[in-house]
Design a protein that fits this description.
2 domains, about 15% strand, about 325 residues, eight-stranded parallel β-sheet, alpha/beta, 8 strands, single chain, TIM Barrel, 13 helices, globular, about 45% helix
């Protein structure tokens, strides 16, 4: 299972239409340092949006490409491209700036309108991903049929987008299963949290054969937010997947850098890293005072201590167990 982080694109809706260059670099560095190397950046509504009358962002399309130049050899970095805003000049600029992909997007049922955009992306030498927005407006069979058409145009990965957070896990599973059977390219899922189903839907998509999921740090995205990057990695790691990602390092980045930076925009994490660790490990919050005391006294990472102790005793961890585990972590 691969993680495609969209914080720097969909998450830009939280701050307007785009992050600053400084925030773009900071978040890119935090993701790459944690092993997340498929990253979508740029204007919230994609490449060429401002040129076509979209909301202004603090950075131009070329400015976003420039901001990630130190990282293009270390990760697959790309941008979103609404089919209706296709611009050959900008697409070739993305290729010149060594971006890895453009993800063409159109509403489900409008795939034929995206053929030119897909061809332009492929002709420029970029990978052509595709987002089927508002996937639920078609039946699973209709969506799978359109996916096959898109593959014939040259699309190399397809995302089922639950754009309004409308879908249930059973629906996601059916849509995913039928699409996986209809195409040979990777199928992914992009979920929103309007009904609180985003994480569960991502797990359902994975079980049905999806090869990647979209997500955002702290769930940052339009409306009720996306699948949280840290949350879905934790959930998948509980199931033995996504072990290549350094969740501890990612949570430290969120605590130390991202949460303080986003406070200026009035944004707060719906689930803090600490609360996520409690759920990941099965630790009841009533034990936190003991864990904090031991972590501070022994100078060890609180999150690692909680996880290590909980692997031994989730029900009633003793002071002796917590301190002996802290001593082992301290080396």
């Amino acid at each position: 299972m691969k993680i495609m982080d969209c914080t720097l694109r969909d998450g830009a809706n939280v701050v307007g239409s785009g992050f600053s260059e400084e925030m773009t670099r900071m978040i890119t560095e935090g993701l790459i340092a944690s092993g997340i190397n498929i990253i979508e950046i740029g204007h919230a509504t994609g490449l060429g949006s401002m040129k076509n009358g979209g909301k202004s962002a603090p950075v131009t399309d070329e400015g976003y490409m420039e901001a990630v130049q130190p990282y293009v050899e270390r990760a697959e970095i790309g941008m979103f491209q609404l089919a209706r805003n296709v611009d050959e000049e900008l697409i070739h600029l993305a290729a010149q700036k060594k971006l890895s992909f453009l993800r063409v997007g159109a509403n489900a049922g409008d795939g034929k309108s995206a053929e030119r955009a897909i061809k332009c992306v492929r002709d420029a030498g970029l990978a052509a991903k595709y987002s089927m927005m508002k996937a639920y407006v078609l039946t699973p069979d209709e969506l799978a049929e359109e996916a096959a058409l898109l593959e014939s145009y040259g699309v190399q990965a397809i995302t089922i987008m639950d754009s309004a957070g409308f879908m249930f896990p059973t629906q996601v599973a059916e849509y995913t299963e039928k699409m996986v059977a209809a195409v040979s390219v990777p199928v992914g899922f992009h979920g929103h949290s309007n009904l609180g189903m985003a994480q569960a839907n991502a797990i359902a998509a994975a079980r049905a054969g999806a090869g990647f999921v979209d997500c955002g740090l702290m769930g940052m995205a339009r409306s009720a937010g996306n699948i949280t990057t840290e949350g879905i990695i934790a959930a998948f790691q509980r199931q033995g997947a996504c072990i290549e990602y350094d969740l501890y390092r990612l949570l430290t980045f969120i605590d130390d850098k991202l949460i303080p930076a986003m406070a200026a925009y009035g944004f707060h994490a719906p689930v803090t890293p600490l609360d996520l660790v409690l759920g990941w490990s099965g630790c009841h919050s009533s034990f936190l005072p003991l864990f904090r005391e031991a972590a501070q006294e022994k100078h060890v990472d609180l999150y690692r201590l909680v996880v290590e102790v909980s692997a031994i005793d989730q029900k009633m961890p003793t002071r002796a167990l917590i301190w002996s585990t802290a001593e082992k972590l301290a080396g």
